[in-house]
């Protein structure tokens, strides 16, 4: 069980590296002058590769979590509201991940509607969600 938890944490941390960095690329993309095609294409290539990579990392991160929950029974049964709240945070994280994919497509099609300031605030959300998820699973407040 401890090896499963070890790799759960490793893949979660790796997934979050992508969730933190991809919106940072969006900040830069929103700042690229319209005539800088080479810079725009370079950032788009980085963003595409990062999105593919972080999607691959999300699968074992969540799969190992499900294994801890459904396989080892950790968090099952009454008195484990922390896991239900954590799963709600995970759903928001998956929505955020999907939102990043939609925003990248908008950049690729020249349809971005948000400023670099908007993306700086957007970039803060995964930080808040990580704090919430880690606090729920470590402290288990309810
Ligand atoms: C499908 C999604 C997930 C499920 C079902 C899940 C489930 C679990 C379970 C059952 C444990 C073991 C808790 C214990 O031994 O007390 C655990 C540990 C942990 N999970 Fe998740 N998890 C998921 C996603 C995440 C995410 C997104 C994070 C992000 C921060 C995360 C962070 C952690 C950490 C840090 C631990 C180790 C806690 C400790 O050892 O005290 N998990 N997870």
UniProtKB/TrEMBL annotation:
GO CC annotation, single: plasma membrane
User: Which annotated residues bind heme?
Assistant: 8, 86
What's its EC?
A: 1.3.99.-
Q: Which Pfam families match?
A: UPF0093
* Entry keyword Cell division: no
Give UniProt keywords alphabetically: Cell membrane, Heme, Iron, Membrane, Metal-binding, Oxidoreductase, Transmembrane, Transmembrane helix
Q: Where does the chain cross the membrane?
A: 6-29, 50-70, 82-100, 121-139
Going by the entry's taxonomy, the superkingdom of the source organism is recorded as Bacteria
- Main localization of the protein? membrane
> Under which main EC class is this enzyme filed?
oxidoreductase
UniProt similarity note? Belongs to the HemJ family.
Assembly and partners are described as: Homodimer.
The record describes the protein's role as: Catalyzes the oxidation of protoporphyrinogen IX to protoporphyrin IX.
Name the chain's protein.
Protoporphyrinogen IX oxidase
Q: What organism, scientifically named, is this protein from?
A: Tepidimonas ignava
Q: What is the lineage of its organism?
A: Bacteria, Pseudomonadati, Pseudomonadota, Betaproteobacteria, Burkholderiales
């Amino acid at each position: 069980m401890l090896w499963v938890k070890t790799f759960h944490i490793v893949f979660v941390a790796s997934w979050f590296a992508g969730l933190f960095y991809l919106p940072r690329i969006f900040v830069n993309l929103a700042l690229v002058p319209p005539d800088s095609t080479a810079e725009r294409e370079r950032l788009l290539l980085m963003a595409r590769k990062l999105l593919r990579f972080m999607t691959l990392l999300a699968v074992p991160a969540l799969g190992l979590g499900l294994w801890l929950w459904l396989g080892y029974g950790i968090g099952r049964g009454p008195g484990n509201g922390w896991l239900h709240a954590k799963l709600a945070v995970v759903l928001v994280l998956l929505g955020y991940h999907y939102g990043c994919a939609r925003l990248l497509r908008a950049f690729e099609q020249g349809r971005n509607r948000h400023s670099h300031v908007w993306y700086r605030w957007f970039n803060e959300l995964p930080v808040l969600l990580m704090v919430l998820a880690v606090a729920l699973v470590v402290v288990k407040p309810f």
